Amino acid sequence: MKSTIIMLIALTAITALGGMSQAVDFEITGEVEESIEVTAPTSPDLTFTPGAGSWQSAGNIGLSTNSDSWSIKLLSDKAKMTNKLGTTDTLSGAMRASASSSGTSPITLGTSEATLTSGSAASTTPIALYLNQTIAWTDKPHDDYSMNITITGSVTT
Amino acid sequence: MPLRNALLAALAISLLLSSTALANGAFELIGNVPKSIEVTAPESPGKWSFGLGPNEFSAGNIHVTTNSDSWSISLSANPDRMTSGTYSILNPIYARLGYIDNRCIVKNDIIGLSTTPEVLMEYNDYLDIGASDLDIPLNLTQYIIIGDFPTENYQTTITVTGTAS
User: Fold this and answer.
1) ipTM of the prediction
2) With an 8 Å Cβ cutoff, are B29 and A135 in contact?
């Protein structure tokens, strides 16, 4: 009798454990941030002749953005191109940049950022970069005038 | 307390609206300013009258603009001698500089014009004057002999060439 009671208790316990189920939920949340990536063109080597100069292609700025409000800004490490080797000769005029081959809406490159172009939709279309350099007859001829240009892509959230 | 909350909210909104730089790239721009020269020919002079013997005239100024510290001016003529096109060809034309006080002119020759450009003058900026913007006076001489046929339409075209070196 005692063993029968023990078996019944064990069976009851097994039944209670085997039939129990439970469901719980959790939520995952995700955020896709507004992003922009820019890549610089290959360092161009341009020739500038005396006069107002023409707009010369400096290659493309690579662009990848999912933002509907973005801009691309340029700045240079010096106000004007300077002879890199041998002398400190500096060109008398500042470099201008435009996203258009005809020089529409030009910016003057300098040590402060200036907006080259902006957009209002996601884009992976490269931005053409054109440069213009006025050369005075008093600018000394050299083949190694140089400046470093930094491209910054920004999104506005 | 409400004022503090309002300020915090305004700050949060302004941070959200502000532009965020997310990426940048950089490249080096290399520029070449070559040696350049521009020359302007004198105005075509009025018709000259040549007498027997040497006839020297001022042909006006060749204007030179250059950023080079070493340059030269050459002349050529086509045809190589003045001709009326019908009867006669004159002796060669000789060219030389008119008076100019410039110590950087290191070569100043009398040349006989031909269809091949010949150096009239050379300039060397050994005084480190810098870019040049000069008027170069040009004199031309036409020698006439008895056998030259008299006619009024002798003509040739002179080409001025500037070379920066």
Assistant:
1) 0.75
2) no
